[in-house]
Amino acid sequence: MDPQHFALLNEARGSLPDGFKVELSGDTIVMLVGPSGIHQRNLLVVRRQFDAHSPSDLVPSENTDLVSPGVGKSRNPDLTYLPAEVLDTTDDQVPAETAVIAVELVSPSNPENDWVGKLRDYPIMGIPLYLVVDAGLKTVTLFSRPDGGKYHRREDADFGEILSIPEPFGFELETATLLPYS
Question: What was the pLDDT predicted at 150?
Fold first, then answer.
């Protein structure tokens, strides 16, 4: 994407009032609604496990804009882990390729954003791991090994099962306490 075109879209995104969560995917501006209680609780369950196994040089960040101007993408995962020095900025955006993982909790109002849009965008943006927690389907899915604009590995677990999270975290994600939407 032309950097000037991306800059114009990004400027439009930045001019919205506070409280709006907005993402860019090519020429598409995606506006998101606020999360539910179950969403927030499930995010905490997942985050506590990642925090316990995160290397000391990585820090968690919720709702940080990950940008890839060269491919026209700006996404805002529910949770990501970044090298600490990347957040030594007053800017509200960081380079997407510095993210080690993007974690998304699927919104019941727009599941296609997580299962289609972000699954397409995150490997192009250079994010090595993508974890999708879907309380509607009662599943957890890890995508890994990005190459050529897509992830080449997919691992699924139902709520109640264990999902292996690779290095740099290297642990078994417990899903038994995740709450379903139904």
Answer: 95
Averaged pLDDT, 72-91? 92
Contact yes or no for 73/125 (Cβ under 8 A): yes
Rounded mean pLDDT of 66-87?
A: 93
Neighbour count for residue 138 (Cβ, 10 Å): 17
Q: Coil, strand or helix: which one is 131?
A: strand
The answer to whether residues 65 and 161 touch, using CB atoms and an 8 Å cutoff, is no
Neighbour count for residue 2 (Cβ, 10 Å) = 10
- Which pLDDT does position 79 carry in this prediction? 97
Q: How far apart are CA 153 and CA 142, in angstroms?
A: 8
- DSSP per-residue string spanning 67-119: EEGGGTEEE--SEEEEEGGGG-SSSSEEEGGG-SEEEEEPPTT-HHIIIIIHH
| Sign of the CA dihedral with 55 first, then 81, 95, and 64 last | negative
Distance of alpha carbon 35 from alpha carbon 17, whole angstroms: 18
Tell me, what's the pLDDT at 139? 98
- The answer to whether the CB of 102 falls within 8 A of the CB of 131 is yes
- The full set of domain ranges for the chain reads 35-174
Report residue 65 CA to chain centroid gap.
Answer: 10
CATH class of 35-174: alpha beta
